[in-house]
């Protein structure tokens, strides 16, 4: 059901470029594809645990969109470490808690730089070898596995141009519940025309489906036809099942752009000092790789660092989660251009001959450590007055987070998108903390001691089709040294020479000429 509402929810024109990384380009479709990814357990060796390349089991719709064909390598983003299967039921239960998760990722077209967002739900399902074709009737030790239950990693994934990550997570979780509620008969068809025992997933993935499975496919097709909430006119509410309606909509033009994940996560994991060190490396166009055993943690932290840069825009390669199992994924690390990439903890261990490049900052989110590159000099010191003010604001925000008395499973709360463990009477909430953190970083970047003082020293050479700006850097740095001393001058000298700051100067001048620079952005 679709309920239009007369709230004014739109993304302002002047923030669209800055929000492209999170929102993607405009599209008339709310959801592009829904896919199910897994593997064929029968084709693997009969070991206790084994890994295969993931395969596309089902896709909706069946045909590609003209403006966005379904990428062939999307299956590796759904299962970054490959498709894990187990003949041992107890072993599957042990690894189920580790790999069962919901996490975001993004896909970027090289030619157009268009970004699509994915939300994937991973879990283990029971299936039987007898259901899969091309299977050997006997294993190496002569044992038959025709009726052997296998636990196979399975993914339900949603792809979209839009970044409603929490709402999309509700969609994939609802789809999984609906599939597992399908009543199935005691047998179903195998590839050879025979009958074997099956589960609700076997019935849904079979070529000859039950009536309930066909009805569920109709539900999926109706979900794919959901419209995009109109900018400035309406929001969208979808009633997926018995749960409350899922809401889609962009913030008002007077507010910050939509960020649908915990922005404070890097600060919580690394602390303020180490987070600012990583942010400095990103600002000064160093190569940075974030690594974690938790897919959601690493992808969320990569996107959070991009948010910290606002109103600057990162113009280089950003990959929130680079799959270990994807062929030739390690070649991206050899790029001469700067990048910000997140990888699973197995990336440098599972791939043969792959070692950490000596010019990369490696940030281990699991151990909260930063490994500096071997051929780089130390990072310059940030301006003392500005970074002290920023640290105080971030400390207050993190103290508010601590006052919520969130336990060690707080990260799991965000994964499942429940807030029942949060003390609602504490006068604060995680979203308010996220806003406070974003405002603190905006005020830092636009402060007079950083880029705020650069504006009088900009000269516009051309506005259209792309702004070209000349920066009088010598006069700007000379004035800063006179007013603020030499502390932080090395950082500013490097910052004003980056493509990130040059692009911001051009966009700011263009908005100034068109009368679109808002007081809210100027004041943070």
List the helices and strands and how they pair.
Elements: H1 16-23, E1 33-38, E2 49-52, E3 55-60, H2 74-78, E4 83-86, H3 89-99, E5 101-108, E6 115-128, E7 149-160, H4 165-180, E8 188-189, E9 195-196, H5 200-205, H6 211-224, E10 236-238, E11 246-248, H7 265-270, H8 272-283, E12 287-292, H9 295-308, E13 317-319, E14 339-344, H10 347-350, E15 360-364, E16 369-371, H11 384-403, H12 410-416, H13 430-445, E17 458-462, E18 468-471, H14 473-484, H15 489-495, H16 499-513, H17 519-522
Parallel strand pairs: 12-14, 12-15, 13-14
Antiparallel strand pairs: 1-3, 1-7, 2-4, 4-7, 5-6, 6-7, 8-9, 10-11, 15-16, 17-18
Helix pairs in contact: 11-13
State Rg.
Answer: 25 Å
The residue fraction in helices comes out at 25-40%
- Supply the number of helical segments: 17
- Unreliable residue runs: 1-24, 130-146, 193-197, 405-415, 417-427
User: Got a strand count?
Assistant: 18
User: Roughly how many Å apart are the termini?
Assistant: 38 Å
- Supply the helix-strand structural class: alpha+beta
Shape: globular
Major sheet attributes: 7 strands, antiparallel
Report mean pLDDT, rounded to a whole number: 76
Strand content: 15-25%
């Amino acid at each position: 059901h679709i309920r239009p509402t007369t709230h004014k929810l739109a993304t302002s024109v002047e923030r669209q470029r800055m929000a492209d990384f999170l929102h993607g380009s405009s599209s008339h479709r709310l959801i592009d594809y829904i896919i199910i990814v897994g593997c064929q357990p029968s084709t693997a060796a009969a070991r206790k645990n084994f890994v295969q390349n993931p395969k596309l089991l089902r896709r909706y719709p069946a045909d590609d969109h003209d403006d966005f064909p379904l990428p062939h390598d999307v299956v590796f983003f759904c299962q970054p470490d490959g498709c894990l299967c187990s003949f041992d039921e107890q072993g599957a239960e042990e690894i189920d808690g580790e790999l069962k998760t919901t996490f975001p990722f993004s896909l970027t077209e090289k030619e157009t730089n268009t970004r699509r967002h994915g939300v994937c739900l991973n879990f283990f399902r029971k299936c039987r070898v007898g259901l899969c074709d091309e299977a050997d009737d006997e294993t190496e030790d002569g044992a038959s596995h025709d009726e052997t239950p296998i636990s196979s990693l399975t993914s339900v994934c949603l792809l979209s141009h839009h970044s409603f990550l929490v709402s999309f997570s509700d969609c994939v979780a609802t789809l999984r519940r609906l599939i597992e509620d399908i009543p199935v008969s005691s047998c179903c068809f195998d590839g050879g025309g025979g009958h074997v025992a099956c589960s609700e997933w076997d019935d849904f993935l079979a070529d000859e489906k039950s009536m309930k499975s066909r009805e569920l496919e109709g539900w999926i097709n109706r979900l794919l036809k959901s419209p995009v909430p109109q900018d400035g006119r309406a929001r969208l509410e979808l009633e997926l099942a018995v749960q409350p309606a899922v809401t889609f909509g962009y913030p008002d033009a007077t507010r910050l752009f939509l960020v649908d994940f915990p922005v404070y996560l890097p600060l919580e994991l690394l602390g303020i000092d180490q987070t600012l060190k990583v942010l400095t490396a990103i600002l000064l166009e160093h190569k940075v790789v974030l690594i974690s055993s938790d897919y959601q943690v690493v992808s969320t932290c990569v996107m959070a660092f991009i948010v910290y840069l606002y109103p600057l825009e990162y113009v280089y390669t950003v990959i929130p989660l680079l799959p270990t199992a994807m062929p030739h994924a390690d070649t991206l690390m050899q790029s001469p251009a700067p990048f910000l990439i997140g990888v699973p903890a197995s990336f440098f261990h599972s791939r043969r001959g792959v070692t950490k490049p000596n010019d990369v900052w490696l940030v281990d989110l699991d151990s909260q450590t930063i490994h500096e590159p071997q051929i780089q000099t130390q990072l310059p010191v940030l301006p003392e007055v500005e970074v002290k003010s920023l640290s105080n604001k971030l400390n207050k925000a993190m103290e508010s987070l601590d006052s919520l008395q969130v336990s060690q499973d707080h990260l799991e709360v965000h994964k499942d998108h429940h807030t029942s463990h949060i003390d609602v009477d504490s006068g604060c909430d995680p979203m308010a903390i996220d806003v406070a953190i974003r405002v603190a970083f905006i005020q830092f970047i636009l402060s007079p001691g950083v880029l705020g003082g650069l504006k009088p020293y900009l000269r516009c050479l051309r506005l259209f089709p792309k702004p070209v700006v000349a920066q009088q850097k010598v006069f700007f740095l000379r004035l800063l040294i006179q007013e603020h001393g030499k502390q932080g001058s090395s950082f500013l000298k490097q910052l004003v020479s980056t493509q990130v700051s040059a692009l911001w100067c051009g966009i700011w001048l263009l908005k100034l000429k068109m009368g679109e620079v808002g007081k809210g952005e100027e004041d943070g």
